Amino acid sequence: MAPLKVVTQVSATLIIYFATRHLAADAFAPLISPRKRNSISIASFRAGLLSAENVETYPSDSTHSTPEERSRKAKETWSAVALQPTSNVCRKEIQLNGEAATIYQRSLWEEFSSIKGTYFINGLASCQIGDRLIHPFEAHGFCKSIVFDGQGKVYYTSNIVNTPLTKEERNRNTIINRGVMSTVASMDSLLGNIRNALSSSERDTANLTADLWPPPFTKNKDGIEPILISCTDNGEPYAIDPSTLETKGRLVDVIPKLASVFPKGTKFLAHNRYDEENRRLIMCVYNMVIPGERFLGNSRMEFVELDDNFDVVSRREHTTRFMVFHDWALTENYYVVPKNPAYLRWNNILKFCVGLSLGTDVFAMEEHTNGEFILIPRHDLNAKVKEVQSDSFFNCFHFGPVYEKPNHNELVINGCVFDSYTFGGEMGFDGDKQTFSPIEWGSTGLQSNGSRSPPPRLDQFTIDTKTFTITSKNRVPCVPVDMPTFHGDAKPCKYSYFLGASRPEGWFPFKQVVKLNCDTFESFVYDAGDDQVVSEPIFVPRNNSHGEDDGFLISIVHDARNKVSKILVWESQSFKNGPIGECVIGDLIPWCVHGSFYPGFTPFTTLSN
User: Fold this and answer.
1) How many whole angstroms separate alpha carbon 537 and alpha carbon 32?
2) For residue 137, how many other CB atoms are within 10 A of its CB?
3) Signed CA dihedral, 504, 73, 418, 567: sign only
4) Number of H helices, E strands in the chain
5) What is the DSSP secondary-structure string of 42-56?
6) How far is residue 574's CA from residue 526's CA, in Å, rounded to a whole number?
7) d(CA 532, CA 496)
C-alpha cells in the first residue's frame, strides 16, 4: 500500500496543479460582420430595478431561429476556428487604408490609423495534434503581435510559443502528455488506458497571457530590455522576443537572477498584474498541498512583486482550504483572490492513475459552500489576511474592475460569476467522442450530458474594509459575460468601464462584444453574427488621451465563414453606434485568449517604408 499511497499523492498533486491552470473559464468568441450593426442597449439600472422592461433589443441578424439550429451553428463555427492549422507569420505589412480594410466612419478611422503602439495577444494553436483533438485549455501557445506605426500601417506577426513539450509534440505530430483535461488515446480499450496511465499530466504550453516587462522606455540599472512574458496556469513563465515572437526560453534562464527566487519547476498562475504608480510587476506562485489538512487538500499562493530591474521588492504567502482560481486582482492595499470552493474526489484518483478517467474527475466544485474573497494585505506583511464570505456559492474565474473607495471604507469587486460549474467540458470539448459541442456544455437548455455550467453573470460586490463583510451584491442579469478587460487592464487602481465577450445563450463561443459602465450599469452589446468568434476586447487610448474612456476598442474576430481573421474597431465613447471599421490581418487563426496593448511602443528598431 505504501507505494500506491505515494503514487496517489504525487498524481493528485500534478492533477490539481494543472487543473487549476486551465480552469480559467476562458471563453471563446465568434466574429463580427461589421456591415451588420446589431446592438442591444441596456438602459441604466440599479439593483432592485432590473427587469426585462429595461432591455431594448435591436433586430438580430441570426438566421438560426431555434436553439437546436443555433447550437449546431455554434458547433460548426467553433470547430472551424479551434481546428484551424497554425502557421507562423513574419512581420506582414498591412495598409489600414488599403484593400484589407472596410471603413464605416472615415474620420474616426483616420484618427485610429494615427495611433502608435503594439498589441500583443496570446492564445491557442490548433486543438488538433496529429489525428487527435486536445482540450482548448491544453493546446499549444500561439502568440501574435499587431504593431501600429502611427502612419497608417500595421505589422502582423505570429509565432508558436516553443516550450520543450510543444517542440517535441510538433516534431512528432502527436500528443505526448495527456494533461488533465485530455487523453493521448481512447479510454475504451486496455491499450488506451495503459497509454494514458503512462502519459504525464503536465502540459506546460504557455498559451494564455502575454505581458511586457520591464515597461517600454524604462531605464533600469542592469539595462534589461522589455521581454514578452508568456504563461499558462500551473506553468512556468517563458520569455519571448517582442520583435520576432521567437521563444527565448524559460524566464528564469533568460533572467538568471530569478533562478534563486523561483527554483526550477515553480508553478505560476497565468495572470500577472502591473502596479503602474510603483512600477511593479506582480506574479502569483500557486501550489496545491496534497493531502493537506484532514486529507481535504490546501491551496498555497505567494505574491511576488518585482521592480523594473527584475529585483524582488516584496513577497507575501497565504495558505487556505482547497479551492480553485485562475484570476486575481490588485488594489492599492490588497491582493484580491476569489475563493471558489472545491473538494477532492479521492475515489477517482486511482482511476486517473490507471488511465480510466480524466484529471478533472478527481475534484469538483463544492456548491453547498459559500464563495469567499481573500483579501491579502500588500504592504504590512504582518497584517492579518481576511477571508470575506458571500451569501452563496460562486465560481469566479475572471475579474472586472476591482478598486478601493478609501473615503467610504469600501472595496468594490466586479466578478464574472458562475452559479454552477462542471469541469472538463469547457468550450464543448468531448474527449471521448473527439468533438466540440459548446452550447450543450454551457447552457441551461441544451444539456444532454448532465453537466451544469450555465453562463457567467457579472456580479458587483461591495466589501466594508472596517468590518470585512459584504454590504451589497448586485447582478447585471441581462448580459452573460466573460473575458473582461478595462482601460489599462488593472494597471490604474480605479476604472469604471468594463469590456467583455458574450453570447445570448450558453457560454461559448462568444459572438458579442460588451461595454458596461460599472458605475451606472449602462450596457451596450454588439453582435458579430453566428459564424463569427470574437476575442477579448482591448482598450487603445487616443493620442494625448485625457480620460479612461477616451480612445478606441479593438477585438480580433475569427471569421469562420470567410476563413479570415481581422481586427474590428470601435470608438469607445460612441460604441453603441457600431464599429468604425475593420481590417483583415490574415488567414483564419485559432482563438485568441488574453493580451495587452502598449501605447507608443514598437518593438522594431526600424519600420519598413
Assistant:
1) 12
2) 30
3) negative
4) 8, 39
5) E----TT---GGGEE
6) 12
7) 28
Measured between alpha carbons, how far is 150 from 146 in angstroms, rounded to an integer?
A: 12
Do 41 and 56 form a contact (C-beta atoms < 8 A)?
Answer: yes
Q: Is residue 315 within 8 Å of residue 303, measured between CB atoms?
A: yes
Q: Which of 304, 232, 308 is nearest to 271 (CA)?
A: 232
Q: Taking a C-beta distance cutoff of 8 angstroms, is the pair 269, 26 a contact? A: no
- Three-state DSSP at 592 gives strand
> Could you tell me which residues are beta bridge partners of residue 210?
230
Q: Is 326 labelled a binding residue?
A: yes
If you search the block for the grid coordinates 487549476, which residue do you land on? 20
pLDDT digits (tens, 9 = 90+) for 333-356: 999 999 999 999 999 988 999 999
Report the alpha-carbon distance of residue 330 to residue 545 in Å, rounded. 24
30: Cα within 13 Å, side-chain hemisphere: 33
SS3 (DSSP) at 79: helix
Per the CB < 8 A criterion, the answer to whether 283 and 266 are in contact is no
For residues 395 and 421, the answer to whether their CB atoms sit within 8 Å is yes
Is pLDDT above 90 for 411? yes
Per-residue b or e along 485-502, where b marks 16 or more CB atoms closer than 10 Å to that residue's CB: bbbbbbbbbebbbbbbbb
Q: Report the alpha-carbon distance of residue 569 to residue 556 in Å, rounded.
A: 9
* Contact between residue 522 and residue 575 where contact means Cβ atoms under 8 Å apart: no
Helix 346-353 to helix 2-22 angle (10° resolution) is 90
* SS3 sequence of 394-434: CEEEEEEEEEEEHHHCEEEEEEEEECCCCCCCHHHEECCCC
- Distances in Å between the Cα of 82 and the Cα atoms of 96, 449, 594 are 27, 22, 16
Under 8 Å between Cβ of 34 and 578: yes
C-alpha cell at position 268: 505560476
What are the tens digits of pLDDT across the range 145-189?
A: 999 999 999 999 999 999 999 999 999 999 999 999 999 999 999
pLDDT in tens, 506-553: 778 899 999 988 888 888 999 999 999 999 999 999 999 888 889 999
Per residue, the 3-state secondary structure of 429-478, as one string, reads: EECCCCEECHHHHCCCCCCCCCCCCCCCEEEEEEEECCCCEEEEEEEEEE
Is the Cβ–Cβ distance between 414 and 403 less than 8 Å?
A: no
Q: Is 379 annotated as a binding residue?
A: no
Q: What pairs with residue 570 in β-bridges? A: 553
Strand partners, 337: 374
Q: Is the pLDDT of residue 40 over 60?
A: no
Whole-number Å distance between alpha carbons of 326 and 299: 12
What H or E segment, with its residue span, contains residue 282? strand 280-289
Instruction: Give the 3-state secondary structure of residue 288.
Output: strand
Domain ranges of the chain: 2-59+68-181+202-382+396-592
DSSP-derived secondary structure letter, 71: H
What's residue 42's pLDDT? Answer: 31
Quick one: which of 286, 282, 246 has its CA closest to 265?
286
Amino acid sitting at position 363: F
Residue 398 among known ligand-binding residues: yes
Query: Which DSSP category does 576 fall into?
Result: G
Q: Is 408 annotated as a binding residue?
A: no
